[in-house]
Amino acid sequence: MDLLWNSEVAGELEARRQARLEESRASAALLIDASRYVRLAMTVNLLDRASISGALRPFPAADQSVLGALDALARGGPDAERQAVTSCRSAIENVCIQRGGVGDWKVGLKALLPSESDQRAVQAVVNFLGAKLHGGHVPTRSEAEQGLKLSVAILARLVGEELSPHPPASSSSAWPGGTQCFIAASPSS
């Protein structure tokens, strides 16, 4: 950190505020490509661990990452949000590598989703998650939860599952302020 004269403090504070606004606008722009996944993410119930984990069971690294993100947010702590966001990004990359059968997640993504708009949407979410990790940004709880919900929505698509707004008959989870969504096998499987 540089030393400032008292007369420069107001200008520095304004510059930092503008930088935060620009970062926020950039994140929002990245999500425009992912609007379908954003709508799906709004329906994700983060308390339905069994459903989320069940869909990812064939992908142990991704399953562990998502469950780790859920645990980090539930546990809290000074670095919980960054851990959750990192785990989300890792889960998406792991599924693309494993299902795509190649060592590069971007190449795997192209094999999984032939549609360029779907590829851009997934890359936009991965970029959103990355933007929350770099440049000295400390993710907020809201950003971490949004990243986790987006990741679950994308992962459901990548593993061939669909999100259903109707809970299974035995489910009764209640996340404070949460929404309801469960992962169900897609009709084509």
Summarize the structure.
The protein is mainly α and 189 residues long.
Topology:
Blueprint: H1 6-32, H2 35-41, H3 49-56, H4 60-75, H5 80-100, H6 105-112, H7 116-131, H8 141-158, E1 161-164, E2 182-185
Antiparallel strand pairs: 1-2
Helix pairs in contact: 1-7, 2-8, 3-4, 4-5, 4-8, 5-6, 5-8, 7-8
Low-pLDDT parts are 164-189
Q: Provide a count of the helices.
A: 8
Report the major sheet. Answer: 2 strands, antiparallel
Task: Tell me the total number of β-strands.
Answer: 2
Q: Give the distance, in angstroms, between the N- and C-terminal Cα atoms.
A: 56 Å
Q: How many structural domains does the protein architecture include? A: 1
Let me know the average pLDDT. Answer: 80
Strand content: under 5%
Please give the share of residues in helix. Answer: 55-70%
> Which series of helices and strands comes N to C?
HHHHHHHHEE
From the spread of the alpha carbons, the general shape counts as: globular
The main sheet orders its strands as 1-2
Report the radius of gyration as a whole number of Å. 18 Å
Structural class: mainly alpha
What does this structure look like?
The chain is mostly helical and 189 residues long. It has one domain. Helix content is 64%, strand content 4%. The protein contains eight helices and two strands, in the order ααααααααββ. A two-stranded antiparallel sheet has the order 1-2. The radius of gyration is 18 Å and the shape is globular. Residues 164-189 have low confidence and may be disordered.
